[in-house]
Amino acid sequence: MSTTKTITLALTGASGMPYGIRLLELLLAGGNCVYLLYSQAAQIVAHQEMQLVLPSRAKEAEELFRHRFNAAEGQLRVFGREEWFAPVASGSNPADAMVVCPCTMGTLAAIAAGLSQKLIERAADVMLKESRKLILVPRETPFSAIHLENMLKLARSGAVILPANPGFYHHPASVQDVVDFIVARILDHLGVAHALMPRWGTENQPRIVP
Fold it and tell me: Each residue of 70-100: pLDDT tens digit?
C-alpha cells in the first residue's frame, strides 16, 4: 500500500494525547521518517493523560522516543517551537504530509488565519501552500460556530479535518482499541499500511444485525 514517507507530526494541548503518541509509534514501526513538534501545552497534557514527560530539549526527546519505540538512528527528528531552520519551515523542503494530533481549537484557528508565530503553524502553512496533505485531528466537543467556520475554511483550502470521533462497530474491548480506530483512519489518509483493525466488508468484519 505504501513506501516509507516523511511525516511531520505535531502534538498540541488538546485532550487526546494517546492518539498522537500511538500514531508516532506506528509511523516509526513502519520505517517512516518523522519530524516531531509539540507545544508547551502538549507537555502538560501528555503528563496529565499518560504520565509522559515530554522533554523541553529536542535531543532528549529524540532519545526518549527512539529508545521507547526502537527507532533507527536518524529516523526521528524533534524540533523546538521556534526552530526556524527546521526543514518543515520552508516550502523548499516539505514533508510528504503533516498531522496535527491532537489539534487544539487555538492551533486550528491560527492555521486557518495563516498565522505562523510558532513552528507548528508555519509547518502547517507550508503544507497548504505546497498542496501537500495536512490532517488536523481536533478533539473538542461541542464545536462552536467559530470552530466550525475555521474547519470549513481549512477544508476548502485542502486540509483533511479528521475529528477524534471513534466508531464502535468493531466492538472495541479496550481504550487501546478506541485509540486505534482513529489512528487507523489517520494512517489510511497518509497512505501508510497497517493492520490495526478489520476493514469494513472483509470476512472477519463483525456482522451487524439490525
Answer: 999 999 999 999 999 999 999 999 999 999 9
Is domain 6-190 in CATH 3.40.50.1950, yes or no?
Answer: yes
DSSP state for residue 103 in the 8-state scheme: E
Task: Give how far the C-alpha of residue 82 lies from the chain's centroid of Cα atoms, to the nearest Å.
Answer: 19
Give this prediction's pTM: 0.94
Question: Would you call the peptide bond into 166 cis, given omega within 30 degrees of 0 as the criterion?
Answer: no
Percent helix / strand / coil, the chain, rounded to 5: 40, 15, 45
Spatial contact of 108 and 150, defined as CB atoms under 8 Å apart: yes
| Cα angle: 129, vertex 131, 133; to 5 degrees | 115
d(CA 117, CA 142): 27
DSSP letters for 115-150: --SSHHHHHHHHHHHTT-EEEEEE--SSPPHHHHHH
The domains of the chain are located at: 6-190
Distance, CA of 130 to CA of 92 (rounded, Å): 9
Cell of 194: 497497517
